[in-house]
């Protein structure tokens, strides 16, 4: 670097700019090279593998296979469970974020701690906690039996209910954090203004509050949907054979069946679904930004 | 909304709903900790008889847990070192320089955080399998770094953005070389952020499951893979104790991050107040 500074003292400003650029490129190099080699290239080779037949020629066979028969029903199950999870974590997330946004700072901080801390505890461990809780003699069934609920103990594990309970608890921190941020950003003077002009509670909620938080709701829902799509641990441990999701299938094909091409095709499908979802999130947030601008003016 | 529902019934309903949802998040964790001290380690709550047997069984002769624990710790330590190197350089590039294609680099960094982990894991499997590196702790650490380094980059970007660049400029104006500035100004101010980045990289690698599972062999089984296996195949009641230890570990790590940030928060302010009080920046001595 010292040599660089000494070369052309005649144009200090230009030199400074180019030196800053050079330093930037130098410092960006490790992350770029690392992720190109260990992230982009592997995904690229997954894509290639999914388009390759046994003799090395181009084929769409693996995609046809991934989108027919049992594999198709797994894909549909994945979409269904993700949609159920997204809906539930959105509703719970909305209720909780709304409640927290009205609490006094100390209580709000404590509540957020309960939301955030579980997020940093291994999903595997939390799933195990649910398995203990939802078993025939677990906390939930025992308390329901204690309340002499009819039909207790209920089958809460190894079915779709169990999976959705588990995945929802994993996605909830994301939706709460996102919605809490959006709700804190709502200008309360707008609500007060609506109230001063005689709008009732329901009207204010529906016509003022909801439109303001709608983009946040949409992106939170989409995000938990996307994150659920590739989820493996909870469905595999808390679901039955009918709750096999696409990540489980990919895992099986690689570790048990040695069917890498099929796994690659399913991985690419999962990737494309995720990217489509992310595109939607971006669309929604830019829509929300323009709406915010309009309401402010 | 604050103005809208001030009725008592509304408040009670709201509190009840919030409490139930918070329990929904917290109970699975509490239940594990309690059950780990129960004589019946499976699916019974609350326990009837208390015991420490599962913790003792962890370290009994022939237990597979210590090996898994030390392997995971080794991999997480390697991954933390890699992530910090990548994180510090990348965050410097993204905050302190004129970088062409900055948004492309930023998108590349965010990539591993939004792409399904199973896809990343599959790709890494296809990369390391032909290289005969399956089961190598180094391969697993390299894989974990793909997920951990973006987190380190993001934390360090926030850290560097929070450091007033005038402090660095002031030091430069008084003749400090770039190394001196980095060592005596930027580094001390960025230290809390670097510790946070290290802790989060470590947790990310330590808890990572997908990549570990794809890249593990019979001899190299990380702790999460061992937990998963014991939940699916081999019934080992010690898994409750392991889970409780993992919970304690995560909470401890978060507490440490909070402590470091709290300790570091006053530093820059004291420096800047010196600047305003005397009109001359005297960085360096006070920073350490």
TrEMBL record, chain A:
Protein's recorded name: ABC transporter permease
Subcellular location: Cell membrane
PANTHER family per UniProt: ABC TRANSPORTER PERMEASE PROTEIN (PTHR42929:SF5), INNER MEMBRANE ABC TRANSPORTER PERMEASE PROTEIN YDCU-RELATED-RELATED (PTHR42929)
Organism this protein belongs to: Streptomyces aurantiogriseus
Key words, A-Z: Cell membrane, Membrane, Transmembrane, Transmembrane helix, Transport
Membrane-related topology note: Multi-pass membrane protein
Record carries keyword Transport: yes
Family: Belongs to the binding-protein-dependent transport system permease family. CysTW subfamily.
InterPro entries listed in its UniProt record: MetI-like, MetI-like_sf
Source taxonomy: Bacteria, Bacillati, Actinomycetota, Actinomycetes, Kitasatosporales
Record field: transmembrane: 23-44, 81-100, 107-131, 161-182, 208-233, 263-284
One Gene Ontology term, aspect cellular component: plasma membrane
Automatic annotation (TrEMBL), chain B:
Protein name: ABC transporter permease
Superkingdom, taxonomy of origin: Bacteria
Assigned protein family: Belongs to the binding-protein-dependent transport system permease family.
TM ranges: 67-93, 105-128, 140-160, 181-203, 241-263
Organism of this sequence: Streptomyces aurantiogriseus
CDD domains recorded: TM_PBP2
Ranges of residues in domain ABC transmembrane type-1: 69-258
GO cellular component: plasma membrane
UniProt-annotated location(s): Cell inner membrane; Cell membrane
One Pfam family here: BPD_transp_1
Membrane topology field: Multi-pass membrane protein
Keyword terms, alphabetized: Cell inner membrane, Cell membrane, Membrane, Transmembrane, Transmembrane helix, Transport
Gene3D superfamilies referenced in this protein's UniProt entry, alphabetically: MetI-like
Main location: membrane
One of the GO biological process terms: transmembrane transport
């Amino acid at each position: 670097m010292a040599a660089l500074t000494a070369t052309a003292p005649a144009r200090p400003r230009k030199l400074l700019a180019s030196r800053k650029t050079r330093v930037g490129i130098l410092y960006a190099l490790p992350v770029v090279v690392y992720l190109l080699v260990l992230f982009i290239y592997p995904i690229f080779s997954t894509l290639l593998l999914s388009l390759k037949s046994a003799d090395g020629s181009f084929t769409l066979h693996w995609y046809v296979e991934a989108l027919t028969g049992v594999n198709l029903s797994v894909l549909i199950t994945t979409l269904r469970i993700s949609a159920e999870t997204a809906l539930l974590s959105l509703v719970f997330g909305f209720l909780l974020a709304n409640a927290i946004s009205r609490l006094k700072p100390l209580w709000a901080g404590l509540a957020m701690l309960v939301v955030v801390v579980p997020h940093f505890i291994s999903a595997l461990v939390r799933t195990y906690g649910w398995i203990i809780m939802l078993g025939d003699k677990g906390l939930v069934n025992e308390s329901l039996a204690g309340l002499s609920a009819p039909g207790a103990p209920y089958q809460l594990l190894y079915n779709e209910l169990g999976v959705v309970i588990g995945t929802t608890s994993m996605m909830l921190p994301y939706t709460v954090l996102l919605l809490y941020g959006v709700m804190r950003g709502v200008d309360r003077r707008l609500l007060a203004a609506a109230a001063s002009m005689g709008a009732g509670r329901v009207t204010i909620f529906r016509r003022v509050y909801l439109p303001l938080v709608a983009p946040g709701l949409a992106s939170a829902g989409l995000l938990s949907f996307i994150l659920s799509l590739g989820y493996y641990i909870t469905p595999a441990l808390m679901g039955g054979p009918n709750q096999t999701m696409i990540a489980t299938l990919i895992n099986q094909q690689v570790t048990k069946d040695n069917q890498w091409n099929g796994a690659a095709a399913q991985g690419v499908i999962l990737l494309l679904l995720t990217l489509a979802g992310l595109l939607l999130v971006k669309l929604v947030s830019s829509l929300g930004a323009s709406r915010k601008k309009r309401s402010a003016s | 909304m604050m103005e809208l529902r001030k009725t008592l019934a509304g408040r009670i309903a709201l509190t009840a709903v919030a409490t139930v949802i918070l329990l929904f998040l917290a109970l699975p964790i509490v239940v594990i900790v309690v059950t780990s001290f129960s004589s019946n380690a499976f699916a019974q709550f609350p326990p009837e008889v208390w015991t420490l047997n599962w913790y003792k069984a962890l370290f009994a002769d022939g237990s597979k847990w210590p090996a898994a624990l030390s392997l995971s710790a080794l991999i997480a330590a390697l991954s933390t070192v890699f992530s910090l190197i990548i994180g510090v350089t990348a965050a410097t590039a993204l905050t302190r320089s004129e970088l062409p294609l900055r948004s492309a680099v930023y998108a590349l960094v965010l990539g591993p955080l939004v792409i399904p982990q199973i896809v990343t894991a599959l790709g890494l499997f296809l990369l390391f399998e032909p290289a005969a590196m399956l089961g190598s702790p180094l391969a697993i650490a390299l894989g974990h770094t793909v997920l951990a380094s973006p987190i380190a980059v993001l934390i360090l970007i926030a850290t560097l953005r929070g450091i007033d660049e005038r402090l660095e400029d002031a030091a430069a104006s008084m003749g400090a070389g770039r190394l001196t500035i980095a060592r005596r100004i930027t580094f001390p101010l960025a230290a809390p952020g670097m510790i946070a980045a290290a802790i989060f990289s470590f947790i990310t690698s330590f808890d990572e499951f997908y990549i570990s599972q794809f890249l593990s062999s019979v001899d190299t089984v990380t702790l999460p893979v061992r937990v998963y296996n014991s939940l699916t195949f081999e019934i080992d009641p010690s898994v409750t104790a392991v889970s409780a230890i993992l919970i304690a570990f995560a909470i401890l790590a978060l507490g440490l991050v909070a402590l470091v940030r709290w300790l570091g928060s006053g530093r820059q302010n004291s420096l800047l107040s010196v600047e305003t009080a005397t009109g001359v920046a005297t960085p360096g001595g006070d920073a350490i």
